[in-house]
Design brief:
The chain is elongated and about 95 Å long. An 8-stranded mixed β-sheet has the order 12-9-13-14-16-15-21-22, sandwiched between helices. It is an alpha/beta fold. The termini are far apart. Helices cover 37% and strands 14% of the residues. The protein binds thiamine diphosphate (TPP) and magnesium ion. The site of thiamine diphosphate has 22 residues, from loops. Magnesium ion (MG) binds next to loops.
Length: 783
């Protein structure tokens, strides 16, 4: 039986990686010295993966499929690697692993070996687009990969433990966003091997009828392959796969010729296999096969225990690998299951990135989107613009400019309107494939905006889309993007390694826009305030993470364009959606972006006594307000204003051009006190400054202090001491320290500003809103 031979070879090669440091073909009796000193790896999931991979190869050849494989339980990496070896992909990418006995030796020895191959799916393996350690993201990633790839089928193998995760649970819905006319298809295979690490799985214990009800409700047509009951499990799997492929093709065909009117129902496969299938049945009183004991390494005491050793050797020999590989060639039946090179799942170009899968976006010129700034900064009306609205317009036109490529999408948890990006709906719609109501707004089967109230699904979709070379923007409320902080972290790990893998081509950056920020959650309150996402991003991977804090609409569009043009990075922009003053011309914003941080001349004096620095829109506004008050009330204090537009893991500035130490001194002097008004947690900024060395005690950092409530917008800032009055108070204290204010002058000013704070508090408690002189404040130049 052709399939059975292939699977036997793959199972043997999987086990060999876990156990053997020598005698890889079992040409002589096994000895304890042949066994690795540290037995690392996961056996139990491997036989099911090998079974699936072999059958998919048959289907690929039979139907000439363009297929990619996404493995959920990435701890089954020995199986992936065994298949990559058998199909000849490994030897194509790594000349250390020829498809020979020497190649088998190298692969087996180096698995889970210091400086060898990792134990889990990873970016060094061809065909892999998912870091395999943290479970739950396979299904959403697979859906992301098939978007705008109409001929691609991505098979996602999902563990039954993995299926208990929140991200997987929501990702089943993603067919509801998938127009079969314009996109490829995902074939989910739910692998019910019954167990997680040490306990049974929920779905493993659900009956076929219960599972059918569940998945039919989600919109699938489940097909069961049950290794426990089928007399001919291979025959059954072949039939089911053929049926699934035909169903996918039929749905796509009808959608593409315009005859599909019903909600599409997609096939899925529910595969029941014993965990650790075809291995040791029992060790003393412990049931191994078809039990959780097979999850990791079985017979792990073999080196010391003769009984376990005997069982291990018997098991490894049971594959009769010598019948399948004569030391030079594989059996012809096995070769017959290897697809043509351009059809091998491990060698699918979509997973590699680079041209033609990646194409840079055609980006509209900026001049149309930036505010003209012909008016004076003192004019409150013509100077107000919403950064998010500008970004919406720019995104709309960028989508339009790349209409034929269809390679840019917006991902959002139903916040396109609320986050002021609705201009995109002048070009496209929200994807929504299930029934529409007449009065629904902006929905269509084929929309380039993907909205779902699951940040996990959106993140997975975007990862799959971007790792297959296309461009994505994820817009989220700042506080709730934290939900996917760990996913972003796993992606960063993947990217870190992928950037060093020579054959992985260019891919776009992962782009986040965080809006509805904590400073304007006066209506929602404390629960909606959390600027923590940027901390994780900045701390993790210094060489390719950037956080942009545009202070106005012009800076926002300029930074957004740079995010869309950048590659192989993680970009985060923090951007306000309400209209705010436009401080910078297009040219100035471009120069600011280049520099990362810059002195704003209109708010700066020569030889400053006190330097203000701000990162963020409201922090900038408040710092400038403080400067204007200081100029009025204490003109003897010379101030400078430095705007920080970008932070990266390397410090101030982007990861391409971060601020060097001498520029740091040019901006912040080497002696003046510096008052920093920061968008996020003060600790984040402290860490950035620490790396610049010098006397950090001269830096006084204001930021979000984890204080909030349902209050007024200005009071939210007062409570965290990032408002103009507290900043001015800080400047007065610094001016006194450096001798510019006498103690008496200082005390008078301090009393005056404390009074302003008290008056504000009294005012809002009486009127329920901020006074107009705060909300309508505008910059006034010195004259
Ligand atoms: C999010 C997450 N939680 C916990 C783990 C630890 N873990 C590793 S394997 C595993 C069991 C996985 O079970 P299943 O998905 O059924 O995989 P299989 O049975 O195929 O090995 C768990 C809980 C993890 N890797 N990721
Ligand atoms: Mg399982």
């Amino acid at each position: 039986m052709v399939l059975e031979k292939y699977i036997r070879a793959a199972d043997y090669l999987s086990a060999a990686q876990i156990y053997l440091r020598d005698n890889f073909l079992l040409e002589r009796p096994l000895t304890p010295a042949d066994i690795k000193p540290r037995l690392l790896g996961h056996w139990g999931t491997c036989p099911g993966i090998n079974f699936t991979y072999a059958h998919l190869n048959r289907a690929i050849i039979a139907h000439d499929l363009d297929m990619l494989f996404v493995l959920g339980p990435g701890h089954g990496f020995p199986a992936i690697q065994a298949n990559l070896f058998l199909e000849g992909t490994l030897s194509r990418y790594y000349d250390t692993i020829p498809r020979t006995a020497a190649g088998i030796a190298h692969m087996a020895k180096q698995f889970s070996w210091p400086y060898g191959f990792p134990s889990h799916s990873n970016p060094e393996a061809p065909g892999v687009i998912l870091e395999g350690g943290e479970l739950g993201y396979a299904l959403a990633t697979a859906f992301g990969a098939v978007l705008d790839n109409p001929n691609l089928i991505v098979t996602a193998l999902i563990g039954d433990g993995e299926a208990e995760t929140g991200p997987t649970a929501t990702a089943w819905h993603l067919t509801k966003l998938l127009d079969p006319g314009r996109n490829g298809a995902v074939l989910p295979i739910l692998h019910l091997n019954g167990y997680k690490i040490s306990g049974p799985t929920f779905m493993g214990r659900m009956s076929d009828a219960e599972l059918t009800a569940l998945f039919t409700g989600y919109g699938y047509e489940p097909h069961f392959v049950d290794a426990y009951v089928e007399e001919d499990v291979h025959g059954r799997m072949m039939t089911v796969l053929d049926t699934a492929v035909e169903a996918i093709r039929f749905t796509q065909h009808c959608a593409r010729e315009g005859t599909l009117r019903e909600t599409p129902r997609w096939p899925m496969i529910i595969l029941r296999t014993p965990k650790g299938w075809h291995s040791i049945k029992q060790i003393r009183d412990k049931r191994i096969e078809d039990n959780h004991y097979s999850h990791q390494v079985i017979a792990d005491g073999a080196v010391k225990d003769p009984e376990e050793f005997r069982l291990l050797e018997e098991w490894l020999r049971s594959y009769r690998f010598h019948e399948l590989f004569d030391g030079t060639h594989f059996d012809a039946d096995i070769e017959s299951l290897v697809p043509a090179s351009h059809r091998r799942m491990g060698d699918n170009g979509h997973a590699r990135g680079g041209e033609p899968y990646y194409r840079p976006l055609s980006l509209p010129s900026l001049s149309e989107y930036t505010a003209p700034h012909t008016c004076n900064l003192d004019d409150p009306i013509c100077g107000m613009e919403s950064g998010m609205e500008k970004i919406g317009a720019y995104l709309r036109d960028t989508m339009r400019a790349n209409d034929t490529e269809r390679n840019l999408r917006l991902f959002s948890p139903d916040e396109t309107y609320s986050n002021k990006l609705q201009a995109v709906f002048e070009y496209t719609k929200r994807a929504f494939v299930w029934p529409h109501k007449e009065w629904d707004r902006d929905v269509a089967w084929d929309g380039r905006v993907l909205e779902m109230l699951s940040e996990h699904s959106l993140q997975g979709l975007m990862q799959g889309y971007v790792l297959t070379g296309r461009h994505g923007v994820f817009v989220s409320y700042e506080a709730f993007v934290q939900i996917v902080a760990s996913m972003a972290d796993q992606y960063a790990k993947f990217l870190k390694i992928a950037r060093e893998v020579s054959w992985r081509g260019t891919i776009p950056s992962l782009n986040y826009i965080l809006t509805s920020t904590g400073w304007r959650q006066e209506h929602n309150g404390f629960s909606h305030q959390n600027p923590g996402f940027i901390d994780g991003v900045l701390q993790r991977q210094s060489r390719f993470t950037n956080v942009y804090f545009p202070a106005d609409a012009n800076s926002a569009v300029v930074a957004f364009r740079q995010m869309l043009a950048s590659t192989r990075a993680i970009n985060v922009m923090v951007c306000e959606k309400r209209p705010l003053p436009v401080w910078r011309t297009l040219g100035e914003a471009e120069a600011d972006l280049q520099a990362g941080a810059s002195i704003w001349g209109f708010a700066s004096d020569e030889e400053p006594h006190v330097v203000f620095a701000a990162a963020g829109d409201y922090p900038t506004l408040e710092a400038l307000a403080a400067i204007s008050y200081i100029r009025r009330d204490a003109p003897q204090i010379r101030v400078r204003f430095v705007n920080i537009l970008t932070l990266s893991g390397l410090g101030i500035g982007s990861s391409d051009g971060h601020l060097l130490k001498h520029r740091f001194t040019e901006l912040f002097t080497d002696h003046s006190p510096v008052i920093v008004n920061f968008h996020g947690y003060p600790q984040t900024m402290k860490q950035v400054l620490f790396d610049y060395g010098g006397d950090t005690s001269r830096f006084h950092i204001h930021g979000y202090e984890e204080t909030g409530s349902t209050t007024t917008a200005f009071d939210m800032m007062v409570r965290n001491r990032v408002d103009r009055f507290h900043l001015a108070l800080s400047a007065f204290a610094r001016a006194r320290e450096v001798g510019v204010l006498t103690p008496a002058e200082h005390d008078r000013l301090e009393a005056l500003y404390r009074e302003k704070l008290a008056a504000h508090r009294a005012y809002i408690m009486e009127h329920g809103d901020d006074p107009e002189d705060i909300t309508n404040w505008t910059w006034h130049s010195r004259s």
